Amino acid sequence: MWKRKRKTADPCHGCFLHPARCICARIPRLDLRTRITVVVHTKELKRTTNTGRLAIRALQNAQMLVRGDGREPLDLSEILHPLYKTYLLYPAAGAQDLFSVARDGPPVHLIVPDGNWRQASKVHTRHPELKVLPRLQLAAPVSSGPVMRKEHFAGGMATLQAIAYALGHWEGPEVTEDLLELYYAKLYATLAGRPPPACVYPNL
What is the pLDDT of residues 45-75, one digit of tens each? Predict the structure, then answer.
């Protein structure tokens, strides 16, 4: 019987896949006007299915901040810069549709919570400095294909997917295509390392 391993032994330090399925050569380097900050829960970094780290590697104007590691709480006010129009990507009540935001004006800084639904939902409540920021929400395109892991609500997306669609609004469809290509490379390499689903045979 094939037992699934919970963690990849000695994964690649770039893409966190098994070295035989490494996709680091497929990571683009995009220098964009829009700034991305991924605020990730420390437990999420232990998951090989995390895609926020790939977004940071692909985007030069991006950073990752880690929360929930037991140290002093993050002071996210330090990342709020007057040269940027800053938004929080989170589907709270009253959140504005991301695609309705004007493309002109000052450059955009998008703060993206990363983690499971429970972890990500706490970012906008545990960081009072973010309460004044406008919220944006992003509807996922309808898809019936495979996913990295089960989403907790309809329309849920992996972090890299959400960033890809969001950046496409401000930076153009080519950016979305580049990042989605990276996402699907990660997805199929991850699925290739999993055992096939158990076959169910009818009673003969």
Answer: 878 788 999 999 999 999 998 877 766 677 7
DSSP state of 151: -
> Residue 122 corresponds to which tokens in the numbers above?
């706490």
Is the Cβ–Cβ distance between 88 and 124 less than 8 Å? yes
Please give the C-alpha separations between residue 181 and each of 95, 165, 170, in angstroms, as whole numbers: 28, 12, 18
Bridge-partner residues for 137, per DSSP?
Answer: 97
The residue among 178 and 13 whose pLDDT is bigger is 178
Q: What is the DSSP letter of 30?
A: B
Q: Give the pair of three-digit tokens for residue 68.
A: 């929930």
For residue 48, the model assigns a pLDDT of: 79
Using CA atoms, how far residue 144 sits from 59, 155, 191, in Å, is 28, 11, 16
User: Which residue from 113, 71, 73 is spatially nearest to 95, judged by alpha carbons?
Assistant: 113
CA separation, residue 131 to residues 77, 126, 159 (Å): 11, 9, 21
- For the whole model, what pTM was predicted? 0.84
Query: Is domain 28-137+154-185 in CATH 3.30.1490, yes or no?
Result: no
How would residue 203 be classed by pLDDT, with cut points 50, 70 and 90?
very low
